[in-house]
Amino acid sequence: MEELKGDNLLRDFFDNISNNYDDIVNKEGEYAVLEKAGRLFERHNYVTGNILDLGCGTGLLSEYLNGKFSYTGIDFSRGMLENASSKGYETLEGMIEDEIRNIPDKSYDFVVSFSAFYYVKDVVKMIKEMYRVARRAVIFDLCDLPSSYISGVQENVYNHASIELPQKEFTHVVEDFKMFAWISPTLNIPIDTRMFLISMLD
Ligand SMILES: C[S@@+](CC[C@H](N)C(=O)[O-])C[C@H]1O[C@@H](n2cnc3c(N)ncnc32)[C@H](O)[C@@H]1O
Hints:
By secondary structure, the chain is α/β, with parallel strands linked by helices. The chain has a single domain, classed as Rossmann fold, CATH 3.40.50.150. It has a seven-stranded mixed sheet with strand order 3-2-1-4-5-7-6. The site of S-adenosylmethionine has 20 residues, from helix 3 and helix 5.
């Protein structure tokens, strides 16, 4: 019940900022993750296909990718999804932990998630689900939240940045590096992240 209360608070928070989210995160130099995602797609010659975007927010990712992609986003904030829909996203409203279970095996070329997994408790389970659904690659980041951030926010957040991915299951981890991610707009704390790309083909 506690967790549900926390989720509702978080959903209301994102609903409230949904129409200003792009302006907030687009402030120069303060959100580096999606730009890096765009460069990763280019580096691996990913230029076409369908993308499942977990915790898609306003669908801002689509503005950083060059190529011919179609997008489906899962998010629990209706306000965020309305913005994503206006960028051409198909949308699924709900918890990513629940919704992804209904997605058939190997049904998307790319399954991605950016700046959302610090809200997810069991992240290894989530990555396994992404792996099940993806045909070409799974791409995501895990924020290295400092304790000052974890104790400074109301909602439950998790630092998954030091996880070890089971090598037997995830054989082709072709990118795994740390980078600056964003500056917390509320606490003004810089946050780093660990970016992963797991390939299905090579
Ligand atoms: C910081 S925003 C990132 C949005 C987008 N990925 C980006 O990079 O701009 C996090 C998003 O995840 C969503 N979210 C957080 N936890 C979620 C969950 N458990 N299920 C569904 N959506 C969630 C929020 O509503 C929000 O839109």
